[in-house]
Amino acid sequence: MEEPWDFEFLSRIVDGFVSFLSEFVDDWLANDMRVSIFKILFSWLVVSLIAIHFAWKFYGNTVNDMYYRQGTGGKNGGTPDTAPHRSGWESAAGDNLKTHRE
């Protein structure tokens, strides 16, 4: 009993999708202002996504290495919160840290 209902439901979905596509193609081929604006914005979106893809392909490893840099002696010569001659444990144990008081 449920098979005809499932087929009818699927058939309605496919018919709705086909009618939407036919209306979309008709609008796409028309020389209307809103279609022209849509084409411009859609082209801008596609070009931007392609540019982001190639930029990430080219610079992705560099950005990833900068973000996940390990230790105090990275590529840029150390982190600003520790001195190069001390380890992180020594500077935390021997210094008095300033606290915020109201």
TrEMBL record:
GO terms for cellular component: membrane. InterPro entries: TCTA. Keywords: Membrane, Transmembrane, Transmembrane helix. The keyword Membrane applies. The chain crosses the membrane at residues 37-59. Its main location: membrane. Pfam families: T_cell_tran_alt (PF15128). Belongs to the TCTA family. This is T-cell leukemia translocation-altered gene protein homolog. It comes from Oncorhynchus mykiss (Rainbow trout). The gene is LOC110493267.
